[in-house]
Amino acid sequence: MLGEFQGSQKVPSTVKLSSFCSSERNWRSVTSVTFHICILQTRLQAGQGYGNTLNCVFTVYRNETVAGFFKGMSFPLASIAVYSSVVFGVFSNTQRFICQHRYGDSNHASAVSDLVVASMVAGFVSVGIGCPVDLVKIRLQMQTQPFIQANINLKPQAAGFPVQTAYRGPVHCISSILRKEGLAGIYRGAGAMVLRDVPGYCLYFIPYTFLCEWFTSDGCRSPSPSSVWIAGGIAGAISWGTATPMDVVKSRLQADGVHLNKYKGVIDCISQSYHNEGLKVFFRSMTINAVRGFPMSAAMFLGYELSLKTIRGVQADINP
Question: Where do the Solcar repeats start and stop (predicted)?
Fold first, then answer.
């Protein structure tokens, strides 16, 4: 395994800030390239009347022009560097902490159980930062969606809907949610996100670890950049693809409340979604998630590992 995840170099057992800093450099460019796909994912999961992915693309373009594909982009771009740095840093340092206390050496090769615990910790921590970001993004992406009169159980919050725009931007969105729903409103959908991210990060970091080991030839200290890119992409596709059912539930819970209140919680959302649309509703946008997950995660892991190697090289030059 490369660098942090397998401990190919001797490092202290203390918390390493380089683990948090190294992934920050490349995430904004990756996000800006893949974000236009994200709105399709959100609309398919939480919207109605789109049918399939191609129809969703045409509908968004016809009704909202090219600008529609970039709605809600500013807040994720401003925060995703912090989010990704924290997730990778927490995973790496948790892994070292476990190895230090279990084996007496922070660079000891991690067992599968060690990787599972480190991934679960990273998943829990990610919700604290990621839930408000996802909430604002989804609210901004879904606020122009038409009201479906057939949903007789929905309770309108504002007269004049369907055309009304609820939020003027991310700052107004956050202040509106805090004013109407309090701090708990910012973490709407957090339960579904925990159920998505805890197993999701296990299926993110663990396949990456084993794929890198598999791609690395005997005698090599670390896999090549191309191996890291492929392993990261496959891990991302696996993780995002399998996370789709809970991602659908999370998106619906967070979109709920823009103009209407429909769901009481995770169980109620699952029950209503299944009752109204069948089992297939939980697999909406699975293809998009997997396709988007490959290049995004491939670039993420490659950028993380190369940045980490660069930081270590600079540190070695300063402290030979």
Answer: 14-97, 110-214, 223-310
